[in-house]
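QUALITY CONTROL LOG
STEP: pairwise intake check
CHECKER ROLE: data steward
CRITERIA: each record must contain a sequence immediately followed by its structure tokens, with no blank fields

ENTRY 1 OF 2
RESULT FIELD BELOW
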Amino acid sequence: MFQSERLASLGVSARRRPNGLVASILWVASLIAAVAAMAVGAVLAVFTAAAVAVIALFAGVLVFLAGLAMRARRNLTPRRRAGDPELIEAHKVNGTWVAYGWDRHGR
């Protein structure tokens, strides 16, 4: 017997298919395994969709809070005192005082 003849019996076409009751049992078992795999896939898809929804919700809340922070920062401009219209704003920049508001018209 040659080497190639011994290996020929190992191929896919050389396998025998079961007949009768064993074939029916294997068919039912494969059907149950396929249904179980689809059920697991469906459950994992639902969990993935829920995770994406939660991430989207948190991202929306984060964008909302960032908008509130930007609005609050914009509204925190220095307010003038109503009693002293001659008061101007000044900041110290590199050891020199720089005044703002002195060149405005209508004062």
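ENTRY 2 OF 2
RESULT FIELD BELOW
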Amino acid sequence: MKLHLRLCTINDLGVLANMGKRTFIDAFEKDNKPEDFKEYLDSAFGEERLLKELQDINSSYYFIYKDSSLVGYIKLNENEAQSDIKDINSIELERIYVLSEFQGQGIGEWILAQVISMAKAKNRSYVWLGVWEHNPKAIKFYQRLGFYKFGSHPYFIGNDEQTDWLLRLDI
């Protein structure tokens, strides 16, 4: 298995929107009210919003490939593009998604190793992320890799206010 990352460009807009919707639906649709979920999907993965994010020098999307197959994507935020902390010494991993049929193959761990390498190359002291408090599988995964909870913040799926735990990995 050969894994690699590829930085997304505006030419990837349609594929990125589809990948974002597909992975988010697979992960969370069953746990949310349909009207709130649809509103969130339309907002978070709308092409206008994604185009703006792709053009932001402080945000980066990467596709993850296993051999020649697109298997997931990540979104990294720096500086003022971070959704919460906005610490110049950190990088936020805002999104990390692997298609369900490729989960359990070590891809998530590989992705995190790449993110840590990128953060080190930029002399950042930690990586942080938000994870839904009702996602024990993801929380356990991150904690196993050394992340620890340092706070929480509200996260809205449509009008439904949920809570994300803020997890941090010092590097």
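INTAKE CHECK: passed for both entries
DESCRIPTIVE NOTE, ENTRY 2: Residues 148 and 167 are 5 Å apart (CA to CA).
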